[in-house]
Amino acid sequence: MVANAVFISTLVFLALLFGLSREFVFLTPWRLLILHSYLRGIVLYAALLFANILGLTIWIERKFFLRDTGRKLKHFDQEIHSGHSELSEEIAAQFGEE
C-alpha cells in the first residue's frame, strides 16, 4: 500500500511541478538569482508538499480500498473455524486446532 501511495504521490507531485514550470516561464532571466537565494526554502517547501500529498494519498487508499477489512476478516475467520469452508481442513492441518 505504501509503495502504491509513493508512486501516485510522485506522479501528482511531478505533474504539479511541470504545470508550475510552464506558468513561471517569465522568471527564466532571474533563475540563477532565485535558486541561489531561495534554494533551501524551495526544497523545504517541495518536501513538505510531497509529504502532504503522500499523506493524502495514503488516507484516500485506506478510506476507499480498506473499507470493511476487519469485518471481512472476522467473517472469514468464523467460516474457517466453523468447518463450512473448503479451506478449513487445509488450514487446520497446517496450523492445528487452537
Molecular structure report:
The chain crosses the membrane at residues 37-60. Keywords: Membrane, Transmembrane, Transmembrane helix. The chain has four helices and no strands. It starts with a helix and ends with a helix. The longest helix has 35 residues, at 31-65. The protein has two domains: 1-67, no CATH class; 68-98, no CATH class. The mean pLDDT is 86. The chain has helices at 2-23, 31-65, 69-82, 87-95. The chain is rod-shaped. Helix 1 runs antiparallel to helix 2 (31-65) and helix 3 (69-82) crosses helix 4. The protein is an all-alpha fold and 98 residues long.
Summarize the structure.
By secondary structure, this protein is mainly alpha-helical.
List keywords for this structure.
membrane; 4 helices; 2 domains; transmembrane helix; rod-shaped; transmembrane; about 100 residues; mainly alpha
List the helices and strands and how they pair.
Layout: H1 2-23, H2 31-65, H3 69-82, H4 87-95
Helix pairs in contact: 1-2, 3-4
Transmembrane segments: 37-60
Keywords: Membrane, Transmembrane, Transmembrane helix
